[in-house]
Amino acid sequence: xxxxxxxxxxxxxxxxxxxxxVAALCFVLGIILVVIGSRMMLVTAEERAHAxxxxxxxxxxxxxxxFGLLIISLDLTLxxxxxxxxxxxxxxASAASEIMAYAPEMLSPVSGTPGxxxxxxxxxIAQFIGLLAVVRGLFLCVKSxxxxxxxxxxxxxxxxxxxxxxxxxxRTVGLFENLFFG
Length: 182
Known about the structure:
Blueprint: H1 2-49, H2 58-72, H3 74-86, H4 99-102, H5 113-143, H6 152-167, H7 169-181
Helix pairs in contact: 1-2, 1-5, 2-5, 5-6
Transmembrane segments: 20-42, 62-83, 117-139
Keywords: Membrane, Transmembrane, Transmembrane helix
């Protein structure tokens, strides 16, 4: 059990730099998307002035700009989704160590030193995977402007909702405990 605890603590030590890298990458890619969207907007306006019509028109350009801005401000996007999904006044994601406070009855079998340490590490990993799911959902929504018949907008929103539920996993587990155990 100690080897497993050490393994998970090593994995969770890698997560903060990985989260910083994802945030920086999202900032840069968001700026690129806004620039591409602005350029598409100018090209569309120029083509319409000369009676040439693009396939998607302004929709594609606006999608790039809007979702590029959402990707640039990823922390505000996460806060808005958390406030919307959970109706919470506290819009920051719950810390992984708070999972025992949100669902004490459901998680009582793992209470104790090694069990809680492993559970907290697994929650941190799930929160990072949730962050990646939200980012993937945002990029799927951007891609839906290029291929509108593929249903990518719906898939993107499902990724974002599931990712937010994973980012705020302690609160999600608490909701499920209240649902099942009263």
